[in-house]
Write a structure and sequence with these properties.
Layout (H helix, E strand, L loop, with lengths): L16 H14 L11 E2 L8 E2 L4 H54 L6 H9 L4 H16 L1 H4 L6 H16 L3 H10 L2 H10 L6 E5 L6 H10 L2 E5 L7 E7 L7 H4 L3 E3 L5 H7 L6 E4 L6 H9 L5 E5 L6 H10 L5 E4 L6 H4 L5 E5 L14 H4 L2 H21 L9 E6 L8 H10 L2 E4 L7 E2 L3 E2 L2 E2 L8 E3 L1 H4 L4 E8 L28 E3 L5 E3 L9 E4 L5 E4 L4 H10 L1 H9 L5 H4 L8 E4 L2 E4 L11 H20 L12 H16 L1
Parallel strand pairs: 7-8, 7-10, 8-9, 10-11
Antiparallel strand pairs: 1-2, 3-5, 3-6, 4-5, 11-17, 12-17, 13-16, 14-15, 16-17, 18-19, 20-21, 22-23
């Protein structure tokens, strides 16, 4: 063991081993040398060479002086030659500089970007250029477009440069024209190449610590011991770890199998952090597969409250079940419903998370097929589905929740049609407003895009890009519901009363005479079915809820309605509709009592003739009769009760 040194106490040490040896040699040699005599020894400073020099004789000293003179004369002549050489070099250097300037000017002219002519384009069509040349041309083209006024070629328009750039980008990065055009609308040209380059590189592997079973510090130490090179994900996450390389498969370690961590992308942390679920709440994850966000919500809630994990795809729910069991989550119910119909199943949630299905333009690094497989129809189809889902998600939220009433809408797409456009649609259709997400990084959402203008509060939403934040492209918006009332479009004039939404109702048809005096028609419909005689003599049952048909029938059968109106009014019990008493009606000149009326087996010719004449007469009367009162002048419930009371008194008298 060596000496234990105190770094604060500096101790001066003696000479080293080499210097001690040299000093010892000098002292030993001095013992044998006498100071007197002509042959005094002179010890050279480099004693280790072993050379000993005697005192020089006068002849030797003279020869040495002559030699020094010759050397000095030679040095002077060399200096003169050097001066002449320097003058010549200066002249040559000036000439070389002139030549270099001309060459540099020629090089600048050659380096100036020019659009390919017709012949070059034809040659490219036959023989494709190498990717290195195309990449250099993309850089030069973007440089010209960024400084178009100074670097453009005379007589060339900006559209020509843009067209060439689109073609080169599609060739070099293997995108279709539709997607390149969309990305050029989203990003500045200087940022576009960075985004495309970032999509060619895989995002780092990230894991989320399951705090229900372990701590991040303990998990990191256990994985380091297994040969995993990792670091904390960032200051914005307390549970994330980023893995650079590993000597063992990260998805098969004992820690993974015991549920201590979950393989999850960094961008998937963001919506759950924005949702910020509280302990004891009722939370809905509308599109939960494969379960990363659901289990993160459960660990933030510490296995309290209730989480409903729903997904429309039953096969994908198998992974949710597996992850929920592996990570030790006990407060989750898993169900399989179409998200658009979920409010009909259950509602009243404190918080809802909707990770809507999308085109996947933010995860091109994971799925390169997106480069060529997406078109305008796919984007519009996704946007339409997302609009339906976000309305259902809002309807599932309880605005009166004391702690919640929040909805998180997120997608792994960067298209405006699937993000800001959908949220703006929801703001117009429901009583919701945008609130800050609580994420302290990310770019603001668009409030205007091309010809579209969105709600100003959309700047509170957040966008994440692979080239800026080193994670998958993502969009997060947080909405607060402030009313459970669903806004409806204003009803058209005359449609103030709707039969569809009334289980029990009363309809009164009032017929006007020529002198504008009216007589009430005692035709009432209640919850109990009522029997009505038809023209043919059969009795028909009137079912509540079919008021439209009753109204049309009353208008057509004007004669029967008038006869009923002119009949002597009875007591209150007789006016209320019900199957207790049989009704008397006159059909084809004969009196039929209740349901005992039976159709004759064979009709005579006279009866057929009479029935035909009667039908013609009824049609004529229907044409002459005035239309019923408008909806705004319809008799109300209180007036009807007074009318019943009045008719009852008259019947009693």
């Amino acid at each position: 063991m060596g000496r234990k040194l105190d770094p604060t106490n500096k101790v001066k040490r003696g000479p080293g081993r080499k210097s001690r040896k040299q000093k010892g040699a000098e002292t030993e040699l001095a013992k044998f040398i006498t100071d007197d005599g002509d042959y005094q020894l002179f010890i050279k400073t480099h004693i280790n060479c072993g050379n000993i020099y005697y005192k020089l004789l006068p002849i030797e000293r003279a020869a040495k002086k002559a030699k020094k003179l010759k050397e000095t004369m030679a040095l002077e002549s060399d200096d003169d030659d050097e001066k002449e050489d320097d003058d010549e070099d200066e002249k040559k250097s000036e000439a070389d500089m002139d030549e270099e300037d001309t060459v540099q000017a020629n090089m600048d002219e050659m380096d100036k970007f020019r659009l390919p002519g017709a012949e070059e384009s034809e040659r490219e069509g036959i023989m494709s250029l190498d990717l290195k040349t195309i990449h250099q041309r993309i850089k030069d083209n973007i440089d010209v477009l960024c400084n178009f006024s100074t670097k453009r070629e005379e007589g060339k328009e900006r559209a020509e440069y843009i067209s060439l750039l689109k073609k080169d980008l599609c060739t070099y990065y293997s995108y279709n024209h539709f997607l390149i055009e969309k990305l050029m609308d989203l990003f500045p040209l200087s940022e576009l190449v960075d985004f495309l380059e970032a999509n060619e590189i895989q995002r780092p592997v990230t894991i989320r610590t399951n705090t229900l079973k372990t701590r991040r510090r303990d998990l990191a130490q256990a994985l380091i011991n297994r040969g995993v090179n990792l670091d904390p994900l960032g200051k914005w996450s307390k549970v994330g770890l980023v893995i650079y390389d590993s000597s063992v498969p990260v998805g098969a370690t004992p820690e993974y199998l015991s549920g201590q961590y979950m393989l999850q992308g960094a961008s998937s942390f963001l919506p759950v952090m924005a949702l910020s679920p509280q302990e004891g709440e009722l939370v809905l994850d509308m599109s939960s597969a494969p379960g990363g966000k659901t289990t993160y919500i459960a660990q933030l809630m510490r296995n309290t409250g209730l989480i409903v994990a729903n997904d429309a795809n039953a096969d994908r729910l198998k992974s949710v079940v597996g992850n929920v069991h592996r990570l030790g989550v006990t407060n989750t119910v898993i169900c399989n419903y179409d998200g658009r119909q979920f409010p009909k199943v259950m509602g009243g949630f404190d918080r809802v998370l909707l990770d809507a299905p999308c085109s996947g333009t933010g995860v091109i690094a994971k799925d390169p097929a997106v480069k060529t497989s997406k078109d305008e129809a796919d984007i519009q189809r996704s946007a339409h589905l997302q609009k339906e889902l976000i309305l259902s998600a809002i309807d599932s939220v309880n605005a009166e929740s004391p702690t919640g009433g929040y909805l998180i809408y997120c997608t792994c797409s960067i298209m405006v049609e699937e993000n800001e456009w959908v949220v703006d649609y929801a703001l117009k259709k429901r009583n919701v407003k945008l609130v800050p997400t609580g994420l302290d990084f990310g770019k603001e959402g668009f409030t205007r895009f091309k010809e579209r203008r969105f709600h100003p509060t959309l700047r509170m939403s957040r966008r994440f890009y692979p080239h800026s934040h080193n994670m998958d492209g993502f969009f997060v918006a947080k909405l607060k519901k402030f009313s459970n009332v669903i806004p409806t479009a204003p009803a058209a004039k005359g449609n103030t009363f709707s039969y569809e939404h009334m289980p029990t109702f009363i309809m009164i048809v009032i017929l006007f005479k020529n002198n504008s005096s009216y007589a009430p028609e005692a035709t009432a419909v209640t919850d109990s079915p009522e029997e009505k005689p038809s023209k043919s003599g059969k009795t028909k049952t009137i079912v509540p809820g079919k008021a439209g048909g009753l109204k049309r029938k009353a208008q057509a059968n004007g004669t029967e309605a008038k006869k009923t109106a002119n009949a002597k009014p009875k007591g209150k019990k007789d006016l209320s509709a019900g199957p207790k008493k049989a009704k008397v009606a006159k059909v084809d000149g004969e009196t039929v009592k209740g349901t005992e009326a039976k159709k004759p087996a064979v009709k005579t010719a006279d009866e057929t003739k009479v029935s035909k004449e009667g039908s013609r007469f009824e049609k004529k009367q229907g044409k002459k009769r005035k239309t019923p009162m408008k909806a705004k002048d319809r008799m109300g419930k209180n007036k009807f009760r007074k009318l019943k009371h009045l008719l009852g008194k008259q019947g009693g008298e």
